[in-house]
Specification:
Keywords: Signal. Pfam families: DUF5329 (PF17263). This is DUF5329 domain-containing protein. Residues 1-27 form the signal peptide. This protein is 60% helix and 11% strand. The protein has 131 residues and is an alpha+beta fold. It has one domain (24-123). It has a four-stranded antiparallel beta sheet with strand order 2-1-3-4. The chain is globular, with a radius of gyration of 18 Å.
């Protein structure tokens, strides 16, 4: 019997594969990516703006570590994308968007910076053996 909707077969296969991967493994991958994103802020030469004030990379990393620890205590574990959206992109107190400034590159919303960094991390992981 021919498959009339090949996209449906692909979707069902993807769901079956996701179900076969232990939840802990998926959560571990997300935690690893999130921790790498937080570390990337500290290792960068970029300044991080919170509520109108610019902060050095180490201070930005420390702030995000505190916010992340709080989110994890609240049981708000999630993907790296959710971390970017819920933790790394805006102040939870004022709602103001964070911004990042790297060298002469101008300011960008922190969500954009983190999304680019996540893509870079994933590309590096996929180029590694077993990645």
């Amino acid at each position: 019997m021919a498959i009339r909707r090949p996209w449906l077969a692909v979707a069902v296969s993807a769901l079956a594969l996701m179900a076969a991967i232990p939840q802990g493994a998926r959560a571990g991958d997300a935690d690893r990516e999130i921790d790498a994103l937080v570390a990337a802020v500290g290792a960068s030469d970029c300044e991080f703006q919170r509520n109108g004030r610019w902060h050095a990379p180490a201070a930005a990393q420390k702030h995000l570590q505190r916010k992340l620890a709080h989110a994890r205590r609240q049981g708000r574990e999630g993907t790296a994308e959710e971390f970017i959206e819920l933790v790394a992109s805006r102040s939870s107190l004022t709602g103001r968007a964070y911004r990042v400034r790297c060298g002469d590159g101008g300011e960008v919303p922190s969500a954009q910076w983190f999304e680019s960094e996540l893509q870079r991390l994933r590309a590096a992981d996929s180029s590694q053996p077993g990645g």
